[in-house]
Give the backbone structure.
Amino acid sequence: MKLFSRARNYLLAMLASSLLGFAPAQAAEVAAEASVRAALVFNFLKFTEWPAALESNPHLQLCIASSDPELVSAMESLNARQVHGKAILTMTLRQPVDCDVIYVDSRQRWNNISEAQGKAHALTIGGYAGFIADGGVIEIVLQEGNVRFDINLGAAKRTGLRLYPQLLKLARRIVE
């Protein structure tokens, strides 16, 4: 099991390095936690299908609710990357806007967003413990030095999102 964990972390580091343009030899050193989180977010987008009403949009708006400059920078590295033929547009979330994807790093920020934003179709991704219990769709979890994620399938269905089976298979835990 430890070998699988190390292999998964190595693959995540390699994914982050290729996504962010680092040489493979530097991957283990450079793929900081923020970069791995950004790589995961990018892959979550690749394995999500939005409602048909959003198909005409030429971009996906990724809103980042975090005060961590490393995390914001890593997420901003996704700007202009393509997913399903749409360019990702990143912005720091300071006020309610129409976001397709929301990454939030604290319960307090999530509560503020939940109260102020009509996130009817947003893929919500949280980086704090208890995010899916608070109604978010995907929670990134650090467990014994390994990066995992949990999915709230009920929240995804309520927003009209379809998460591909490949993503569901990789989840540590799925709740309805």
In short: The longest strand covers residues 59-65.
